[in-house]
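Entry type: protein chain
Record version: 2
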Amino acid sequence: MVKVIFGQKIPLTPCTMVVSDGKFINDNYKRYQFNGVVTLWLKNNMITVFGVYETNEGKKKLTRNLLLDHVKTEGNIVTGTVKSINISPSDQVDDNGNFFSAKDERLNIHFKKIKKGEYLVMINNNWISSCKEN
């Protein structure tokens, strides 16, 4: 039974990270705060991001998804290349900076299982969070 519960190294269903009061630095080296949801859709080679992006200039809605290409899984590591970044018409962030990686850049996602349906996730060695399978 232990092998069944802990044998799965990556999520099989969408895995959601909820970010509250996350403090970050964007591609232009400006500080911002993010409150929202990031969902890893590994079967669909996609990452969706939805939330509020807040800088000194105010709050703005962020709605994007990254489509991945050349996706490979080895154990608990998923690698791929960002094929495209789709920015929703409702996205209000002026700077089209990258969330995780730019188009044609590599993306590395490392998983460490915490318990059934919950993982510690590291994206590109600079984003660490936990995600829960939906």
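Comment: The chain is about 5% helix and 60% strand.
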